[in-house]
Amino acid sequence: MNASKPDASNVTASIEDFMVQAVAMELEAAERYNELADAMEVHNNREVAELFRKMAVIEGKHATQVMAEMGWTEVPKPTTAVPFEGFESAEMVPIDELHYLMQPWHALQLALGAEQRAERFFAHLASIADNDTVRKAALDLQQEEQEHVELIEAWLKKIPKPEADWADDPDPPRHHS
Hints:
Structural class: mainly alpha
Distance between the termini: 53 Å
CATH superfamily: Ferritin, core subunit, four-helix bundle
Helix content: 55-70%
Number of helices: 4
Number of strands: 0
CATH class: Mainly Alpha
CATH architecture: Up-down Bundle
Radius of gyration: 18 Å
Strand content: under 5%
Number of domains: 1
Order of helices and strands: HHHH
CATH topology: Ferritin
């Protein structure tokens, strides 16, 4: 096995195991996008908050779609987690990359990175799957993540890149001790 790639064989044994992992990833991503939206609302950055809320809805719908395909009425508990390119699931936006003055362009860059990691994750799982059903499901999910990448890239084309001084705050937060 290539040391640079995680051992994901434990989620490629059955379609159920694989889809449990996929649902968990989508729900975690939706939760993180909502957390990011909450943080942006605290800082009165409503435009970016709204963007993160849209991404949360997209991820939630994706999880619902996978559950419907599997015939699940309740979210199954994952028995394993597969790390990929970091400590969190592939589709999570790192919380430490959030800035209270970030603009929609920054939010989209974070979302783009998450969707690209998810696309690579499913491509990797497809490449190591020893089961045709799992391989096909992984390729289908990879394609859906690629569609998310393309959606975000289209949004990015409509949004100007911020000026270099975007993080300058003439009235920065003060911490009282």
